[in-house]
């Protein structure tokens, strides 16, 4: 069965390491905050000017003054710091962010990402993603494996306007976990009940399959 958005976020949380500074993009990536182990020291950075972002608030406990870059209400953790966006982007551009988790419309087999514009539709702009893909040490993409028409979003070459080139390191989709290597997408894990053949049929880019592919464990 394909993973839910929450399960994608839960799997990505396993990639975090103690001491990491992490930026979570809009959409599925924001859910990762809910699955960080309590004993792990991870600092979440929001590009609108916050270090120390916590999980989403419970209903009725929202503070309208505490929002992330996607304008969702959030919580803070002890030791949180607030600052202006100039300082926030200074952190990003200086390479202080260890890991960025982004959503994507398309990812190419060489690690290019398109996640900001569909031609002919109104968009708000590329936003902070432009800086994050250029400066982050590690980028993981959280995405659906196919679009609403059932067409692959993992391609030989992106067809939409690019956000960044040769920057994505790993993908966690609703069907699989894949590394982006010099020779294509390497299949690491598959969603429970999803066959390697199904993943292969829904991946337009070059897919590398070596040995038995285990199911994703939570």
Task: Describe, in plain words, how this protein is organized in 3D.
This protein has 218 residues and is an alpha/beta fold. It has a single domain, classed as Glutaconate Coenzyme A-transferase (3-Layer(aba) Sandwich), CATH 3.40.1080. Helices cover 14% and strands 25% of the residues. It contains 4 helices and 13 strands. Strands 4-3-2-1-5-8-10-11-12-13 form a 10-stranded mixed β-sheet. A 3-stranded mixed β-sheet has the order 7-6-9, with no helix packed on it. It is globular and about 45 Å long. The model has no long low-confidence stretch (mean pLDDT 93).
Blueprint of the fold:
Elements: H1 5-13, E1 21-24, E2 43-46, E3 50-53, E4 76-82, H2 85-93, E5 99-103, E6 106-108, E7 113-114, H3 129-135, E8 139-143, E9 154-155, E10 170-173, E11 176-181, E12 184-190, H4 196-201, E13 207-208
Parallel strand pairs: 1-2, 1-5, 5-8, 6-9, 8-10, 12-13
Antiparallel strand pairs: 2-3, 3-4, 6-7, 10-11, 11-12
